[in-house]
Amino acid sequence: MEISFYLAAIVAVFATFRVVTHTNPVHALLYLVVSLLAVAMAFFALGAPFAAALEIIVYAGAIMVLFVFVMMMLNLGSAAVDRERQWLQSSLWIGPSIMATVLILVFAYAFIDGGGIGTVSGETLMAKEVGIALFGPYLLIVELASFLLLAALVAAAHIGRDDSRREQPLRNLNGSVRQPSKLEQGGER
Amino acid sequence: MNLTTSHLIALLPLLIVGTTVIVVMLGVAWRRHHVASATVTVIGLNLALLSLLAVLNVTPLEVTPLIVVDKYAVLYMALILVASLACSTLAHAYLEGLDDQREEFYMLLLCATMGGLLLVSSQHLASLFIGLELLSVPIYGMAAYTYRDRTSLEAGIKYMVLSAMASAFLLFGMALLYAEAGTLSFSGLSARMSGGELSSAWTLMGVGMMVIGLGFKLSLAPFHLWTPDVYEGAPAPVSAFLATVSKIAVFAVLLRFFMTAPATGDGWLHTVIAIIAFLSMLVGNLLALTQNNLKRLLGYSSIAHLGYLLTVIVASDGLAIETAGIYLITYVATTLGAFGVVTLVSSPYQGPDAGQLYHYRGLFWRRPYLTAVLTLMMLSLAGIPLTAGFIGKFYALAIGVESSLWWLVAGIVIGSALGLYYYLRVMVTLYLHEPGESRRDATANWGQRSGGVMVLLLALAVLVIGIYPQPIISLVRSATLITAG
Question: Which of chain B's ends, N or C, has fewer CB atoms near its CB within 10 Å?
Fold first, then answer.
C-alpha cells in the first residue's frame, strides 16, 4: 500500500505544479482535477476511503466541473469554437491523461494487491467513525463552519451583486452616475 | 457528547450572537431597514455582553474538547463584544450615506465577532483554525464593502489573497505538528513537548509556520506589508474592527497557546519571537514617521503596538497574562477612539474616507470637542502619563525589565521616542489655521448621535484608566487562565 501512496503523492505534486505554471485557465483546471484525484488516492491509501470519496464527489466532481463550466461560459462567441478546438489538441490533454492513467493503475494495484481497502498503517476510517467524530467532539465546530459559509456567501452576494437590477441611478467605479440602460433591464426580467 | 445546561450557559455569548445573525438575516429577507438592522445588532451584542455575567457562574468549564470557557476567555470575550459594539455604532453613522445595500454589513460584523469569541476560548488547533477563518472571511467582505470605491475593493482583495496565504501557512504548520504529536489539543501538544518527544525539526518547522500565519494576522514586522494599504482602503469602521477585534482575538489565542504549550524549550523559537517583536517596534515606528495619511499612520502604529505587546509572549511568565490584558484594554480603547474620530469625520459615507492629514488641518476651530478626543487618543497612543496608553506601556516595560529582556526594553524606549514625534505631528496639524479649500467634516450634531456618544465614552474611559487604573488591574488579575486540559 505504501508504494501506491507515494505514487499518488508524486502525481499530486506534479499536477499541482502544472496548475501553477500553466497560463491557460482551462488547462490549469484540468490539472487541478487530476491533482484532486491524486489527493483522493492518497487519502485512500492512508486508510480513509470516506474522505477519498468526498474529495472526488465534492471537489473533483462538483466544484471543478462548476469551475470549468464558468470558465467556458465566460468566453461565449464566434471565436469560442476555434478556441475550443484549440483546447482539444492532443498535446494539451495528454499530460493530465497520463497522470490520470497512472492513478487508475495505482488504484487497481492497490485494490488487487491489498485485497480491498487497506492502509499504510493504523486502522481504516469509515464513514461511521467520521460521523461520530463530527457529531461528537467537533459538533460545535461543524455548526460554526456553517456560519463561516454564511458569511462567505453574504460577502460574495454583496460584492458580486448584479448592478443592472437596481432601480436607482448608480455610481460607477469612476464616480460618475449612470442610468441602467433599457437593454440591461430587459435582459434581467 | 452531551451538552448540559451549564455547557449551554457557557456558550451563551456565541449562541446569542449567532441568533442575532439569523434575526438580522431574516429581517433583511423580509424588509430592508438600516436602522432596524443596526438596532437588532446592538441589542444582540449587548445581550451577549450581559450573558457573560451568567457565564461567570459556570467558569471554568470545558465545552467539548475544543472549547474552554475560563475567566481569561470571558475577559477577552467582553473586550471583543465591546469593540464590536463600538464598531457597529460607528458603522451605523458611516453607512447612512452609502447609496447601496447597507444591512449585510451587520451580518458580516456579527459573524466576525463570533469568530473572535470562538478564538479566545479555543484550546484546540481545529477550533483555532475555524475561529480564525470565521474572523477573517467576513472581514474580506467588510473591507470591500464600499466596493464602488476602488481603494476599498483593492483593500478587500489584498486582504483576501494575503490572508488566505497566511491560513495556508497556518494549516501546513498544524499538519506538521499533528504528524509529529498525533494530537491537536493545546494541552496534548504541551504534554508531548514537555516530555521531550517533540524536539525534532518537523515540530519546530510546524510551530514556525504557525507563527508566520498568526504573525500575519497580527501584522507583525516581516509580515506587515498588507497593513497600511488595507487600513487605508477599508472603510473606517472596518479598519477599527481590524485593528481591535481581530488583534485581540488572535493575540489572546496565541498567548493561550504559548502559556499552555511553551515551545520555548531550546530557545530557538524564543529568539525568533523576540526578533519579530523588536523588528515590529522599529519598523512600525520608522515607517509611520513620514506618513501623511492618518489611517496609514494608525496602521503602522498598530504594528508597533503589537510589537510592544509581543514582549509578553517572549517573557511568558509572571506578569504575562496581566500585562497582556491591561495592554490590550488600553490599546483597544485608544485605537477605537482614534478610528472613531476618523469615522465621524468621514461619515456619512461620500466617497473615500477623510484619511489625509490635511483633512484634519484646523479641525480644532470647527469641532473643538472632537479634536480634544483625537488629541487625547494620540497622547494615549504615545503613552503620555494620565492616559490609558501610559499604563499599558508601563506594564510592557515592567515585564521586559523583570525578565531581563534588555533588547526589547531598548526597543520599547526607542519606539516610544519615535512615536512621540509622529503623534505630535498629528496633534499640531489639528490646531493649525484652517485652510481655505473645501474639506470633510463631521456632521454638526455628531455628539448626539450614537457614534459620537461612543467616542466620547471611549475618551472618558481612556482618561479614567489613565488616572485610576486600579479597578481595571484587579479585573484583569481575576481573569485566570486554565492551562491543564
Answer: N
* E strands in chain A: 170-171, 177-178
Can you give the pLDDT at residue B285? Answer: 93
Task: Quote the pLDDT of residue A76.
Answer: 61
CA-based nearest residue to B310, from B204, B198, B415, B193: B415
Name the residue among A141, A145, A173 with its Cβ closest to that of B150: A173
- ipTM of predicted complex: 0.89
Note whether A155 contacts B140, CB cutoff 8 Å.
yes
The predicted-structure confidence for B141-161, as pLDDT tens digits, reads as follows 999 998 888 899 999 999 999
Nearest chain A residue to B109 by CA distance is A151
B482 assigned to some structural domain: no
What is the H or E stretch that residue B320 is in?
helix B320-346
Instruction: Give chain A's domains with CATH numbers.
Output: 2-122 (1.20.120.1200), 138-189 (no CATH)
User: At A163, which helix (H) or strand (E)?
Assistant: none
Q: Do residues B244 and B327 touch, judged by C-beta distance below 8 A?
A: no
Print the domain residue range for B213.
5-477
Asked if the Cβ–Cβ distance from A151 to B66 is below 8 Å, we say no
Q: Which of B189, B188, B209, B184 is nearest to B199 (CA)?
A: B189
Alpha carbon of B398 to those of B301, B404, B471: distances in Å?
A: 21, 10, 19
B295 found inside a domain: yes
How many Å from the N-terminal Cα to the C-terminal Cα in chain A?
A: 57
Residue bearing the bigger pLDDT, B231 or B354: B231
As a whole number, mean pLDDT of residues A102-117 equals 72
Chain A contact set for B148 (CB, 8 A)? 170-173
Total domains in chain B come to: 1
In chain A, whose CA is at the least distance from the CA of B148?
Answer: A173
Give the model confidence (pLDDT) of B256-287 as tens digits: 888 886 655 556 778 888 999 999 999 999 99
Residues of B in contact with A172 (CB under 8 A): 148
Mean predicted confidence (pLDDT) in B299-317: 90
Contact B107 A151 (CB under 8 A): yes
Taking contacts as CB-CB distances below 8 angstroms, the residues of chain A near B141 are 151-152, 154-156, 158-159
Q: Is A24 left (phi over 0), alpha (psi -120 to 50) or beta?
A: beta
DSSP code of residue B244: I
The answer to whether A156 faces chain B, any CB pair under 8 Å, is: yes
State residue B435's pLDDT score.
66
Contacts of A173 in chain B (CB under 8 A): 148, 150
How many A×B Cβ pairs under 8 Å? 89
B471 pLDDT above the threshold of 80: yes
How many Cβ atoms from other residues are within 10 Å of residue B425's Cβ? 17
Question: Nearest residue on chain B to A168, judged by CA atoms?
Answer: B99
Residues B85, B461: contact at Cβ < 8 Å?
no
pLDDT of residue A182: 42
